[in-house]
Amino acid sequence: MAPNLEDRNSVFEFVVRQGNGVKGLVDSGLSTVPEAYVQPPEERIDKENAIKYDLPPIDLSKLDGHGPDHDEVANQIVRAVETLGFFQVVNHGVPLHLLESLKVSAHYFFSLPPQRKAVYLADVSPSPLVKYGTSYIPEKEKALGWKDYILMQYTNDDEALQHWPQEIKELLLEYLRSSTGMVKKLLQVTLGNLGVKPDDSMIDVLIGKKMLSMIFYPICPNPDLTLGVGRHSDIGTFTVLLQDEVGGLYVKIEQDTGYGKKGDWILIPPTPNALVINVGDMLQSI
Ligand SMILES: O=C(O)CCC(=O)C(=O)O
Description:
This protein is α+β, with helices and mostly antiparallel strands. The chain has helices spanning about 10-15, 20-25, 70-80, 95-110, 115-120, 155-165, 170-190, 200-205, 280-285, and strands at about 50, 60, 85-90, 130-135, 150-155, 210-215, 240, 250, 265-270, 275-280. Strand 2, helix 3 (about 70-80) and strand 3 form a beta-alpha-beta unit.
């Protein structure tokens, strides 16, 4: 049954506990965002004054040789890692047909009837490796997040094939393998700049736990009042993001750089065939 949109508990029960998600809320019909999703003003993004990131994506195919192109690209990566901590890459080695299929699979998964997704809600999921939900910590958040997600942890291929959602597991595994290869190259370049020549086992330790998530941001009637994923940093080395053509990824600058001043927001627009790379806390602390 559709929730009473005025009542936070009713919205919470429908969206979070029953697993209908924001997708279910939107499908049940609404013309304004329920109060439970309205972010306090200090949490909202100053989109009007955001700076549009306009550096060309870094061409990773140039890392394959040993000539001046290799060094130039390595410098671009190091500069991006040390300053904004976000950059885009093309010719990254992850097949483009795979990226397109991933977007189709994400739409497929989130368009499943709520009861098919709700089997992966944290309390009932058949595996601790797979979790479907909406806000990350809905009991604690001041405002709920305008998104639904499915998170899959990777331990090994066998467990992934056993536990990840049947219809998408092969594709997700292929993407994980392929993007991990790219992340290894990025780590070699980044650590190489610090004078470290990491071998495979050191890289594996640095990468640590691998996780894959698909996040769906349903169309929002008042996008200026809400956030999909609120302010955060990622804990690992590199996060690889595949955006669709809608966009909406903003980065806040922590200290003055060539990109802008402390406190400025930067919009990272979707770029065809590119992946977005985000430096995580672990790498930042090295
Ligand atoms: O969907 C996005 O582009 C951002 C997601 C994100 O930042 C995250 O999950 O850590």
